[in-house]
Amino acid sequence: MSVQHPAPIPAQAGIGLRAHHFREILDAPPPVAWMETHPENYFGEGGAPLRILERIRACYPLSFHGVGLSLGSTDPIDQVHLHKLKALFDRFEPAFVSEHLSWCSVSGRFFNDLLPLPYTEESLDHVCARIDEVQTFLKRPMLIENITRYLTWQDSPIPESSFMAETVKRSGCGILLDLNNVYVNAVNFGLDPLEFLGAIPVEAVQEIHLAGFDRFGSMLIDTHGQPVYPEVWSLYEWAIHHFGPRPTLIEWDTNLPPLSVLVEQAAQADAILGGCHAEAV
Amino acid sequence: MPRLCDLQQAFSKSIIEGNHAAVTAAMAADGSALRSIALYRRLIRNNFVQVLKITYPVLHRLVGDGYFGVLARGYLKHHPSTSGDLFLYGRHLPALLQRLDAPPLLVALARLEWACHEVYQAADSAPLSPDQLHAMLSADPSRITLQFHQTARFLSFPFPVHRVWLALQADVSPDAALDLPLPEEQTGLIVARSGGAVQVIPLAWLDYRLLEALSRGATVASIERLARDAESGFDFTRLMTTLLNVQAIAGISVKEDLWHTATVS
Fold it and tell me: Which of A112, A148, A155 is best to mutate for the B interface (most B CBs within 10 A)?
């Protein structure tokens, strides 16, 4: 049973919903336009998480951002996982559902991390077939997010942005564009982030993620444990002018700060979005 | 170039077994392959350590980061993840600690915390309806058995582990918690949920034995007999009130005869 009809997510900033902030949010709902959460955190049959999510859903449009479907795996799609996702989506009617362009399991063993695919014709066929299977079952379109990678496959001839564009074209999915991931990959592998963004189909981008990273030796790691870095804010300004205003999420998963810090970051994103709206007028 | 399936298998072998040959052959030959694999191993391992820390916060607090990290990495080797849903990932930790001959306090804390973890997200329980209560009160107790909600678990321990568990919920240092007296004392607990929060409620040992027998399908009459035999003047109403207060009873069954059972739930 759904709690209400899906509420559209406006082209404004939202924040990631984490259990650490439940109490604060319920006591004083923060001034953000929407919230996003991981559906896997609500796979339990009952209890406080589902009840709290119902209360939050009554106040905010919601987006579900999956982390465990292992879309790129060559194992069959986990039907139990898929059924749980559908039950949750049917109950909460999120405006967006999304997953990652990655894999996290093989031969029944899960690594529960976002692992990179080689960008080949075989991967493209495989991923598009899987997205089609999931979208058909869920009876709703998905957004697919670009991930960070910390390795380079030798045989990966299709540029990531072209791979995503072709995935959109073939499967009808949309794109969740993570600008922190674009920046981290660009720094780690000496790539041009604007070249990547320029090859992404404008109309396919329906949501943007912003987050912080940490340094590990010479590498940047996408930890979601820091404020958005100035370089990523700059990339965001460019992206908003290029793609137009889009719902934008402040993602923070580790080293969680007080809720007010997330709200401040969301306000900063809103200021950039507002500037773009004003220019358009 | 290996097919996608082979490549994923090669990556898996590298992460799990440390056999890097196949996966590094598929990676860019720029000298970074082993460093990348090491980074992924670290990230993956840290994720699983973090999941166990969230599932077993008191155990983690008691033993500290160092010991817990070793334990969590050992756990990963014995019980790798088999799902994209991590809720059940830590379920084997109490048994693993037992097999490793860990100190009894750690085994007991792990059992208690796993019960708390399950109860937190168990299916919601509704209080007994007036009809159900009426049926329970008016039926022959020798024909009544009770069903219990998933939100209520009965656990027993050879010492009062809940004192350490409770102390470490508050701002008590692990050293002070370890100094708590833990006499050898049969201890029964109900882990239940109230208003969404998990409660750990200590029971008198006789109460625990009676409730545990009820949860295994003993009739109300047989429990009343056991109670009277053990303690004259035993207040059975008090015991039932405890169960009703934590909304532990899901329904009652009234045995019609030897072969048929009517369920009111």
Answer: A112
